[in-house]
Amino acid sequence: MTPTPRPTRSPHTVLRIAAVLAVVALAVTGCAGGAGAALTASAHGTSPTTSPTTSPAADAPTPDPIDWSECGPGLDCATVEVPLEYTNPEGEQISLAVMRHRATDPEQRIGSLFINAGGPGVPASDLIKYIDPGSETSTFSPDVVARFDVVGMDPRGVGESDAVRCLTDEQRAEQAAEDRDPSIPGGKPLGRLLQDARTFTQGCVTHQDRAFLASLSTDNVARDLDQVRAAIGEEQITFYGASYGTVVGPMYATLFPDRVRQMVIDAPVDTDLWQNDPLRLLDEVARSNEETLDLWFETCRTEGVEACPFGDGDPEAAFDTLIADLEAEPLQVPPAEGLTPGGVLDGAMALEAVRAAAGARALWPSLTTGLLDAQQGDGTFLHFLLTHVTVAPFGGPFATLQEPHTAVRCVDWPALRNLGEHHAAAREITARGERLGSRAAYSALNCARWPAENKDRFTDELTGAGAPPILVVGGRVDNVSPYHWAEAMTERLENAVLLTREGVGHTSYRTSGPCIDDAVDAALIDGVLPAEGTVCDAVPAGTTRQPAAPGGK
Which residues, 6+ apart, have CB-to-CB distance to 289 below 8 Å? Predict the structure, then answer.
């Protein structure tokens, strides 16, 4: 792993690390943000695969042509009006924020590449802003940026599209500061968790009306995307989606298969679990988090103390001792400019930081250094990881994403009002005795109290029937989307090819070397998919490209 004596603390490195963490941030409670963002929109007919009660905007009015305004170098911004509910297309309208990065080679332009930034809850515009055609760390390759207008729509309830807010800054800070106990399911006594859920859901209806909250489903997002497509004037779209964006993509391909030119989905969600068994889905995320941490332990142990000195050959024992010591006597972390506002680091907080860093292979050396520092009484770097993933009450990634993240999940998923189901799921997770299992238990409890019913929840299987062949990219070790989800997605889609990435990480495009990047570019640009069974080897540590920093956070 070759850890450095201390984590590099230049502003550039801080932003790069924060970018990686923004991608994995929402794995805390479910599916994480990915490396993309999605846009599309509709105005025309109904797919034959669509349920009569969930018609994809067959009668929605054709939107006005989009009115772009320049909003940065190579960037244009606009808003598009769409129906609040497609069952009443002439009724209340809502505004969606749209951003595009113009193709750098207009003469060779193919069309619009719509991206979905995952989460759910990650604003597409955050990734569009940081496209840099001349940078190896850019979100999309120079070839893709040359040939496509890259278009991002902040989905309804996300980012500039009237982002869902359920807590005040003070409430968020108070909940984040409360002591968690890694030895009990959910980290707090159940009564306190239920009280938090009531505070959260009551805040949601205080700040938004119930009709808006009920409308935040993925099928409506797909219809919104098609409205944007129509407003731009494209007959078909090319689409890249990562993590939760791999629910949006197949939804769009199922509702509007004839409007798909090409599609790539990276780090897939199991859409059957997403639609029908979300507690099992969260359980499988918890397992993936634990498996990734176990692989870090194994790698640390096998590479030896010169590469990974933490634990002197027994990292598991050293880790358990450190977490117990931090829980018994938390570290006071002073403010460090550019890293952390300071605070307290206890055992539960350290587990959260480790969970995030273990899921990003590029952070393993820094994770080793952070653990060594904590052993010596310096919790600065672990607190930095924590602050930029889970706590961040005043503007960090998780603080601004968790509320729309929860809102989308609760309207997409079947009703989870039976507390017995949550108890059973929590018992199953904690019975395994895993180091990271406590936080995952009860992670869907807000949905048990969700105040807005989605009366026409879309339940059709997402097969993409009639769409062109779809490229599915799955990582062999992924702390959020286990590899068997990619296999299941490939089987479920009517026409798909699976590309496998060896190595560790959530999402693969632009983070895993030229084998993945070239295959994705070929699919997006030329519609050429790799042969069945193609596997891309893991790239050497330290050579992977990392995504640019979303939102500069």
Answer: 27, 355, 358, 359, 436, 440, 479, 480
Burial of 532 (0-12, 13-18, 19+ CB in 10 A): exposed
* All structural domains of the chain with their residue ranges: 1-553
User: Is 29 or 237 the better-scoring residue by pLDDT?
Assistant: 237
Asked whether 521 and 529 are in contact (CB, 8 A), the reply is no
Please say if the pLDDT value at position 473 is more than 60: yes
Phi/psi of residue 34, nearest 5 degrees: -115, -165
In 3D space, the residue among 526, 533, 536 whose CA is nearest the CA of residue 502 turns out to be 536
CA dihedral 339, 402, 480, 491 (to 10 degrees): -150
- Give residue 427's identity as a one-letter amino acid code: R
Give the count of beta carbons closer than 10 Å to the beta carbon of residue 190.
17
The residues near 221 (Cβ < 8 Å, ≥ 6 apart) are 38, 155, 156, 248, 251
pLDDT at 361 over 50: yes
Is this structure's pTM higher than 0.85? Answer: yes
What band does 133 get if pLDDT is binned at 50, 70 and 90? confident
Closest among 205, 163, 218, 190 to 402, alpha carbons compared: 163
CA atoms within a 13 Å half-sphere pointing along the CA-CB vector of 155: 31
The answer to whether the beta carbons of residues 322 and 382 sit under 8 Å apart is no
